[in-house]
Amino acid sequence: MDRDIAAREILLLGAFEEARGAALAAGIEAVPLKGAALLELGVYSPGERGMSDADLLLRPRDLEAFEKILAGLGWAPMPNSADSWFKPSPNAAPPAILDLHTGLWHIKDTDELFRWGLEEGPSGLMLNAADLFLHAAAHPLLHHGELTPRALEDCARIALRAPGDGARFWSSVARKAGIYGLRPVVWPVIKRLAAGPVNVPGPELDALRPRGLEKAKAALFEKAAEKHTTILEYLLPALHRPGMALRYVVPEKRFMLRRYGAANLALYLLRPLRLAWSVLRGR
């Protein structure tokens, strides 16, 4: 255990719990994601994984009210960030940071998760095991265009924690991956886990295997899993959900205000050029 990492994780989890408690008192559900969820569930112990911020999921309709709650607790929007809020920490420690999500890139309907994908956890509502796994598997490739060893470790630990022989867990993962169209996205993760520490039952492994036109998509996600490129980082989300390309090029007004401080026509016209420059610079 790394004591500095453990102290940071404990601080972030405490900040998240404070915000979640205040939100719940106002009738708003805040669901932990990524490291916050894995630590709360005991998939990792403090000091094992490392966190720079605590991620949480909200219903889109609750965002404005939740941000008012954060402001009342002494939080402030992080400069140049569309989604993060920060709060100074005592004793010159780095500030606590909350990263707010009203959607996950691997699914279209956030409310669907709140209706069907949550269960009671140690301290509140959590993603169920299958949805937590799919998020952990899809997020690094869709959001960052890469597959890191830590992401694989997260997925392996979630799968190995499944009760019994894991058959029910893998059946749910395969069914939801088919519903969400995620087979090409998560196949690089599934393939690596099945070849290593995790036993994926044969029928579920076959159900998760890309088929038909999905194989072409899966090949691009595999390239990203092998090596990060900026082109794939921007291409893969649009490949999975084509509508995201337009949303990324022409973001909502709130995004422009938080990221650039304004939402005028000139900034909207410059946005595609900024993205093109990022791709070219990162090649």
Would you write up a description of this structure?
This protein is of the alpha+beta class. It folds into 3 domains: 103 residues, Beta Polymerase, domain 2, CATH 3.30.460.40; 115 residues, no CATH class; 34 residues, no CATH class. The chain has 14 helices and 7 strands. The strands form 2 sheets. It has a 5-stranded mixed sheet. The chain has a two-stranded antiparallel ribbon with strand order 6-7. A hairpin with an 8-residue loop joins strand 4 and strand 5. Helix 5 packs across helix 7, helix 5 packs across helix 8 and helix 5 packs across helix 11. It starts with a helix and ends with a helix.
Which labels suit this protein?
single chain; 283 residues; alpha+beta; Beta Polymerase, domain 2; 3 domains; 5-stranded mixed β-sheet; 14 helices; 7 strands; 9% strand; globular
